[in-house]
Amino acid sequence: MPMQLGQLRYAIAVHDEGGFTKAADACHIAQSSVSQAILALERELGVALFERRGRTVVPTVAGEYLVRRARALLAEVDQLVRETSRLGSDAELTLRIGFVGGVRHEIVEATGRFAELYPEVSLVIVGGDHLELTERLAAGEIDLAIYEQRERLPERFATALVAELPSWIELSTRDPLARRDGVTVADLRGKPLIITSSETHRDVERGYFREMLGYPDDFVYVGSRDESVLLIVGNQGYEQCDHVPGHETFRPGLTKVALVGPDGTQLHRPLIAAWLAERGGYYAEEFAETLRRTFSEELGEA
User: Domain check: are 146 and 274 in the same one?
Assistant: First the structure.
């Protein structure tokens, strides 16, 4: 008889409970059923999985290995059952996606491709900053968040790298650095970095730009993009930005320069997709993969 999932569950229970009687109680079945299942499994494998030491049952080396691999296998099986049950349900057919700031053309392209592949799925687009989207994701209010990761996410979140975005800064055309092809973080010392952020989220933003990206600790906070534009035009600071040739609105008095490392190579920032691991979500993961492929094609052409 081939190995059965029930036998693996009983083996895990015997391992965790330290005996057949306690394992049977935990599984709500007769102790003889657990013993017979383990015996049949040992006969099939041709090795002993457990041995008695006094009143305790302990796993052999083979038993320890089996239990460790069985946990991973059963976790995948349970996930498969949940996803198969959810697939096609009303809740699954609505995908709520959170984005930060302006929507890049790659995201628009990926959304169109996804809609063509899965016309049965209704897309709901939600805006917000990084912390707001993380909080909404944790509360189950959205299914997927697309953003630059600001801080380490809890283990309950699953993530996937969508793209490595080239780093640019936006400067006044009157700034001497605007005439360069690239500038380093060291070149920016003495100039304030303008950050658009709510007052409650400034600590996280400061930590991200200073510790993760390495910007000098000289920041000016504003509440809107319009405020930042006016400050930059007035040559009172610079802003980190994206640069997508052919897909941007020209703003007089502003220019964009590549942010480079000491060796002159342009720096990049990771764009990720995040979702709750326990919720999974076939369509959420499919959208993330569609977005990854779209960015790969677009950035490869740039």
Answer: yes
